[in-house]
Amino acid sequence: MTIDVITMGCSKNLIDSERLLKRLSAAGHSLRHDPEHPAADYVVVNTCGFIADAKEESINMLLSLGEAKQRGEIGKIVVMGCLSQRYMDELKELLPEVDVWYGKFDWKNFLDTLPDETSGEESKPKDYERELTTASHFSYLKISEGCNRFCAFCAIPLITGRHTSRPEEEILEEVKSLVASGVKEFNIIAQDLSSYGLDTSGKHRLAPLIDAMAEIPGVEWIRLHYAYPADFPEDILDVMARQENVCAYLDIALQHISDKVLNNMRRHFTKEQTLSLIRKIREKVPGIALRTTLMVGFPGEGEEEFEELMQFVKETRFERLGAFAYSEEEDTWAAQHLKDEVPENVKQDRLNRLLALQEIISKENNRGQVGKTIRVIVDKIEENTAYCRSEHDSPEVDQEIIVALDGLEDNKRPLEGDFISVNITEALEFQLLAEPADGE
Asked: Is there a smaller number of Cβ atoms within 10 Å at the N or the C end of the chain?
C-alpha cells in the first residue's frame, strides 16, 4: 500500500505521525508526502484542534483531499489527531468523503486494518520508535501527554485529558536510540513540562530526567519547551547551569502580566510571582534566552491592562516572544463564564502593537551579539550559504543565523548537522548574519 501522512499543528502531533510512519514502514508499506499533489492508496491527516485558525486549516486540508478523491487521485482518507478527538461526530456529518476516523490516542487501530506486506521476520517497532521527518540531526522528544491546569481559555485538557508522564527509563532509552541514528539535538516538549513526574511519584522529576539525559554520550544540545510558571520545578535551573549541553533556553508561556487578567485566565499565578520567577531564572542561568507566549484581548483586558503588558515586555526584554489574540474556544471555562468583550479590531491593533514592540527589542538584543563568536548548528546549506541556529534558537520558531561560505575551501565547508563557530557580523530584527570563525 502507498500511504501519505500529513501532519497539521504542533510538534507534539508530529511525534505521533512519526510513530505511525515507523509502524507503516515496518509493515512494508510505501510512504510518500506531497500535499500539493497527493497520490496514495491512503492519505492520513493528523489534525490540530487547538485554536480556530488551526481547526480551519485542518478542515480545509480535508476538503481539498475530498476533491482529490473525487478526481480519483487518491484512495481512502483517514483522519486522526486532536480535531477528530474533540469533534468526531460533527465532522463525520460535515465530511462524508472521509473513510475512517480516529482520535488522538486510538490511531494504532488503523494498522490493524492494513495487510502486513513483510515476510513476518521484521521485528515490531518499540512504542517510542519513530521515522524522523525533521532534519536528521535534531528531534522533538515528548515526555508527557495531557494537562491538569484547566486555564480558562484553553481546550487542551478537553482534548488530551489528564497529565500523564512517560516512564523515565523509556525516555532515556529513546534518547539513546535517537543518538545512535545521528540525532544530536533534543527539543523536549509536553503540554506542561513543569508537572513531569508529579502523577507517577508525587515529586517533580524534570530535573533528574534532564540531568540523566545530559550524561548520555552524543547528546549535544537539550532544549526545554512549554514549562508552566505555577509550581515551576526550580531545581531544573541548577541542571541548566551545571550541564553544558542543556541549552540556556527556556520556553515558558506567561500569557499576561496583569493580575486582573491572570485571575480571569485562571492561571493561579500573580504578577509579583512572575517577576520573581524571571529574576530567579536569569540569576541562576546567566545568559539564558527566555521565550514566552502572550495573549491580548482576553476578557477583562482594558487599555490599562494592555499598557501594563506592554510595559512588562519593555522592561523584561524577552529574547524570544510569540503572541496571539484571544479566540473563544467552546466548552472552555471562559466561553461558559466570561463575555468575549474586546472587539476584534481592538484585539488585532493590540497584537500589532505588541509584536512591533518585540521587533524593536529583538533587533536591539541582536545588536548586542555583533562581534561575538558563538557555536551554532548547521541546519541547511544552499550554495554558498549555511542556515544555522545557536543554543538560543529552537527549530522552526526562532531566528536563524545566516553564514556566508563564500571563498571557503571545499575541505573546510561544513555539512548539515555540523557544529561550527561563527563570528556575528550584522543584526537584523529576527536574523543574525555571520561568517565562519578563523579555523573553521
From this structure: N
Residue 286 is given by DSSP the state: T
Provide, rounded to the nearest whole percent, the portion of the chain with pLDDT above 90: 78
- Cell 517510542 belongs to 128
Mean pLDDT calculated for residue range 194-211: 97
Beta bridge partners of 227: 252
The DSSP code sequence of 338-382 is: S---S-HHHHHHHHHHHHHHHHHHHHHHHHTTTT-EEEEEEEEEE
Contacts of 242 (CB under 8 A, 6+ apart): none
From the list 78, 87, 143, 128, the residue with the least C-alpha distance to 107 is 78
Least Cα distance to 322 among 271, 362, 281, 368 occurs for 362
Nearest to 173 by CA among 137, 224, 213: 213
The residue ranges of DSSP E strands in 162-213, in sequence order, are: 164-165, 185-189
Please tell me the number of Cα atoms within 13 Å of 202 on its side-chain side: 0
8 A C-beta contact, residue 429 and residue 365: no
Split at pLDDT 50, 70, 90, the class of 32 is confident
β-pairing verdict for 419-427 and 431-436:
antiparallel
The lowest-confidence range among 61-65, 271-275, 337-341 is: 61-65
pLDDT reading at 152 higher than 60: yes
Helices and strands in the chain: count of H runs, count of E runs: 14, 18
56: pLDDT confidence band, cut at 50, 70 and 90? confident
Cα angle 225, 160, 278 (rounded to 5 degrees) comes to 30
pLDDT, residue 111, reads 87
Name which of 240, 153, 244, 146 is nearest 196 in CA terms.
Answer: 146
Query: Is 181 in contact with 135 (CB distance < 8 Å)?
Result: no
Find out whether 262 and 216 touch, Cβ atoms under 8 Å. no
* pLDDT tens track for 92-122: 998 999 999 999 989 988 988 887 777 665 6
Closest CA to 166 of 285, 19, 9: 19
* Three-state SS at 237: helix
Of the candidates 427, 359, 420, the one whose C-alpha atom is nearest the C-alpha of residue 387 is 420
Q: Which amino acid is at 151?
A: C
User: How far apart, in whole angstroms, are the C-alpha atoms of residue 287 and residue 304?
Assistant: 32
Among 89, 75, 69, which residue's Cα sits nearest to residue 61? 69
